[in-house]
Design a protein that fits this description.
By secondary structure, this protein is mainly beta. It is built from one helix and 16 strands. An eight-stranded antiparallel barrel has the order 1-2-3-4-5-6-7-8.
């Protein structure tokens, strides 16, 4: 089965081929990996990946997988081909209102890469958040002009709060 995994705003192509109950051949961006995955409990996996062993706790909510590996957290959105096409169609439709960028998890604002009035391109980095000792660059989904920055460098933020508001660019047609 083919999937797209979205990690920190970047898309990665995945293909998963089941070999038996626990064994899979996983292709990430075309690179092949042997995986043996076994549930140890409702939220704990023991994984043998290319002959290396890993213990990973996880939560799965609809299309979002949160992994805890050696006290580092990773949010991964997993989309099959149909859901990816639907997302791209929705994205292609113009948003009439501002884009509000929110945090996905608690963290600390390390650096603001924009200020009100700046014009940003699709996928451009706008803020860096440190969560679980990892710095993550938060990117905008659509081009626009920074309307409001709701946080400042050094500020601790909770998950789900607005960070930046971006007005869409005026249409030229």
């Amino acid at each position: 089965m083919k999937y797209t995994a979205i990690i920190a705003g970047k898309e990665r192509e995945l293909e998963v081929v089941r070999r038996d109950e626990h064994r899979f051949q996983v292709f990430i961006e075309g690179e092949s990996h042997e995986v043996d995955a076994r549930n140890c409990s409702a939220d704990w996996l023991s994984i043998l990946l290319d002959h290396c062993s890993y213990d990973i706790s996880y939560t799965l909510d609809k299309d979002t997988l949160e992994l805890n590996f050696r006290n580092q957290y990773f949010d991964i959105e997993i989309l099959d081909e149909r859901k990816l096409r639907m997302r791209r169609v929705r994205s292609a439709l113009a948003h009439s209102g501002p884009e509000i960028i929110k945090t996905s998890m608690p963290g600390k604002v390390v650096k603001l890469l924009v200020e009100p009035g700046d014009q940003v391109a699709e996928g451009e980095g706008i803020i860096i958040i440190e969560a679980m000792k990892m710095e993550n660059e938060i990117q905008c989904r659509n081009p626009g002009i920074i309307k409001t920055v709701h946080v400042e460098a050094g500020q601790t933020v909770e998950g789900g709060i607005p960070l930046v508001e971006i007005d869409p660019l005026p249409s030229t047609g």
